[in-house]
Amino acid sequence: MNIPIFWRGLNASKNYLDLLVWLELKPLLLFNSLKKITIMARQFTNIAFTEGVKTAQTRYGSREIYQKFLKRGVTEDLLTAKETEFIAARDSFYMGTVNSNNYPYIQFRGGATGFLKVLDETTLGFVDFVGNLQYLSVGNLLENERIFLFLMDYAHRRRLKIWGRAQVIDDNPELLEQLSDPDYQAEKARVILIQVEAFDWNCPQHIPMRYSEADVAQIKAPLEARIQELEQQLALSVNS
Ligand SMILES: Cc1cc2nc3c(=O)[nH]c(=O)nc-3n(C[C@H](O)[C@H](O)[C@H](O)COP(=O)(O)O)c2cc1C
After folding, report:
1. Stated pTM of the model
2. What CATH superfamily classification does 82-201 receive?
3. How far is the CA of 204 from the centre of ligand 1 (A)?
């Protein structure tokens, strides 16, 4: 169940939020209590709920709800089949790094579908292609390994946020080969390996539905076949 617990405006009712939090966590709580697993706060909250964020939650009235969310938390963030499948279907993502002037920086990464690969439940890797030689993302990572990936599925209005630490690998041709997509035309420069520390799904709200060229071709195929069929019928009836 993908209950949109972060789907709220500033005016959302606290009770409504509480209900959403409870609905999301109920099955996990039942599962965890059955298995007697120690319940921990979700890892992303340890990274993302900074003092500033907690102050904002207090100021706008959601702190209490998220404190409950933390108490009822779930186990550590390991990539499951759901995330793996989602990542494998992506042909691009946005990548956030931080520079030593404390500015965030976002860059787009694109490639063959599935070019960002899940190597295990906490590791991702991809081949970084040659670009404009500014090396902004890579340079940032050399000074600060923290990385944030934002994966969008516009067609199905889904988004996944991933926090981690990245390693820039320049000298491992075997790994570069392993992570490469042979049919995709690009000049391969290096491997970026990401140790995933946390992730979180967002709700579909405000995501415009957009389709890739391949999606559109798939949608159009039966329509084009039908048009062709009707044109043939029309030609036959005109000629008869
Ligand atoms: C020849 C060439 C020129 C490019 N010029 C630009 C540019 O002017 N602005 C830009 O944002 N991206 C440009 N790109 C794309 C970026 O180089 C690419 O997105 C790269 O991944 C940027 O990574 P970085 O921002 O992490 O350094 C260019 C790519 C190539 C191959």
Report:
1. 0.81
2. Electron Transport, Fmn-binding Protein; Chain A (2.30.110.10)
3. 30
